[in-house]
Each structure stands twice: as C-alpha cells, then as structure tokens.
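Q: Give me a backbone?
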Amino acid sequence: MHTREAQLQAFNRLLDIMDDLREKCPWDKKQTLQSLRHLTIEETYELGDAILDNDLEEVKKELGDLLLHIVFYAKIGSETASFDIGDVAHEIGDKLIHRHPHIYGDVVVADEEEVKRNWEKLKLKEGKKSVLEGVPKGLPALVKASRIQDKAKGVGFDWEQPEQVWEKVQEELQELQEEVATGDQDRIESEFGDVLFSMINYARFLNVNPEDALERTNKKFIKRFQYLEEKVNAMGKSLADMTLAEMDVYWNEAKKI
C-alpha cells in the first residue's frame, strides 16, 4: 500500500494531467458540467456492477474513472472562479466534522441508529425544510423508495417489528388482487406500487438492500437464460422452435450450475 505522501503525489499527478488535458485535448476542452453528467451516472453504475461482482480490480478501475470526473468538474469550476478541488475537499471535510459531533465534539451516542437520527436533525438545523429533501429526484424509483424510507426512519417514523411490515405487505397484496379483479388499470398500477414500496420496506427489516437483491436476480436470470440459448444453439435450433417444457429442461440444468 502507498504511504500518505505517495497518495498525495498520485493525486497531484492526476491534477496535473487534468490541467494538460483541459488545455491540449480537443475533446476534453469542449466538455461542460452538463456534457459530463450522463457519463458520470454511467460510471457510477459501472462501479455498482463491480461492487456487486466483488471484482476488486474492477472496483479500483471504476473508482479511478469516478475520481477523474470529480477532478474534471472541479477543473471546470475553477475556470470561472466558482470553486476548485480544494473548495470541494474543504466543504465535505467541514460537513463531516459538523455532522459527527460524537467524534469532533462532546455528543455521546449509543449506536449507529442514534448517529443517523442526529445526522438528520443536524441537516434540518442547517436549513432544510424536510428530511426528504436529500433524496435526489432523478434516482431510479426503487432506490428512491429505499432512501425515502431510510430518511423517515432517521427521525423515528418507522415500524417497530418486522412482523408488522410483513402484515402490511400481505395487506397490500390483497388490495392489489381486489383491484386486478375490477380491471381498473390506473388503480392496479397504484396498488402495485404500494406492494413494491411495502416490499422495499420489509427488505430493510431483513437487512437486505433491495436494489442489490434485484440486480443479483437480474444477473442470475441472464446467466441461466444465456445457458439455455447456448444449449439450443448447439442443437442447431432457435428458442422459437422449442416448447416451454423443452426449455425448462435446460433451465433446470442452468439452476444447478
């Protein structure tokens, strides 16, 4: 591992490279905060994939890509004297110190949950009108639901026992079935959303990250489906030629791998 001095040297080298690219590279010279935004989101998802796969070499690479974006944004900000990487680092440092009075002050906390509650209270004191203001509007709906519930829990608005949440899931499922029977598509969609929201809530009580759980299932389905495709292709057939019963044979094989 690198010493702190070596780490700072590496970071300083990255800043120098960013200066060169911004001055000399036609592509880098053209970039703006807006043009980089979708690329940053893409890089974040790629990091998430690497973490789910527990591919530490890939995690390292994706962290580098994200770090480049942070340095890039800071460089653009410095060109209009709006902010630079020093401002970025100082601001997050100040925020962390302010929001950790149990480390940098005389506040005593009992556990992780109390830390979270204090965090939300401090944010309200900083001028936020709602604890939900910190949930980005552009988050995917599943992730957003999870963050909303975390924020509400931080101020004590939560179920007391997992059994209560499971009862709520069953209640929402029953309401969904009732609306399915009516055929009212708008109400079906509404109740389906309630089911998903309650399941995400239940996931918290099981200590399961619903986004990670669903993505693991996505990856599992892809792996099994591609196994099925390979087997069918090896026979010189296509999936369209197969019955469901025939496909199930290879699907069940894939489940054993």
Notes: The chain is about 75% helix and 0% strand. The chain has a mean pLDDT of 92.
